[in-house]
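Inverse folding, one chain.
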């Protein structure tokens, strides 16, 4: 396999949002980081700094450290799964 030297500089989290639930991010400004959200499965909505947009599998969203966000699974019967990527300290 080729070397992936930059992977040790990135934190990758997989997050599952259950039906009718939500996840908030970048709430604490000291811990906030620039990040990329990639929706893997399902659909719902995402609010970034007060602007709400629909999200679905395959969507890629860039979030800046100074932006708060909220991801909501609006469905009744399926999970919304995404990964978040952000730099390690």
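Residues assigned per position:
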């Amino acid at each position: 396999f080729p070397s992936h030297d930059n992977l040790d500089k990135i934190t990758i989290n997989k997050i599952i949002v259950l039906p009718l639930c939500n996840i908030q991010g970048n709430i604490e400004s000291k811990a906030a980081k620039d990040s990329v959200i990639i929706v893997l499965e399902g659909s719902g909505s995402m609010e970034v700094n007060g602007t709400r947009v629909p999200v679905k599998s395959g969507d890629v969203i860039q979030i800046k450290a100074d932006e708060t966000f909220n991801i909501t699974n609006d469905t009744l019967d399926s999970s919304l799964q995404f990964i978040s990527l952000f730099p390690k300290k």
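The mean pLDDT is 88. The chain has no helices and eight strands.
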